[in-house]
Design goal:
106 residues; alpha+beta; six-stranded mixed sheet; 2 helices; 19% helix
Length: 106
């Protein structure tokens, strides 16, 4: 899959880690990042403790907001496959302090 569409270097590296199921994914985030899934607040580490290595993008369809918003077809384990967004919010020091994900239509 072509991740070069993702123009923000740390978002691209984070997505590369997600795709590989690599625990380096966590290194791109603050210690306690805020996370929402379809608008509901969830625990980031607990969520990705289950998802990492099992869930990933099947395609990157569009990228917006200076490379910090990624849209694509996503395989979400037993939940199925659907279109999603990942919206990364960059905090002080370049780490992401918030991640909003959810289903979308485009």
């Amino acid at each position: 899959m072509d991740l070069s569409k993702i123009t923000h270097p740390n978002v691209r590296k984070a997505i590369e880690a997600l795709q590989a199921g690599d625990k380096s994914w966590y290194s791109f985030f603050a210690d306690q990042p805020v996370m929402t899934d379809d608008g509901n607040t969830v625990d980031f580490k607990s969520f990705f403790g289950k998802a990492l290595g099992h869930e990933k993008f099947l395609s990157i369809d569009k990228v917006e907001n200076e490379g910090k918003e990624v849209y694509g077809n996503f395989k979400a384990g037993s939940w199925g496959t659907f279109k999603v967004f990942f919206k990364f919010h960059e905090g002080a020091g370049g780490k992401f302090d918030r991640l909003d994900i959810g289903q979308t239509k485009y």
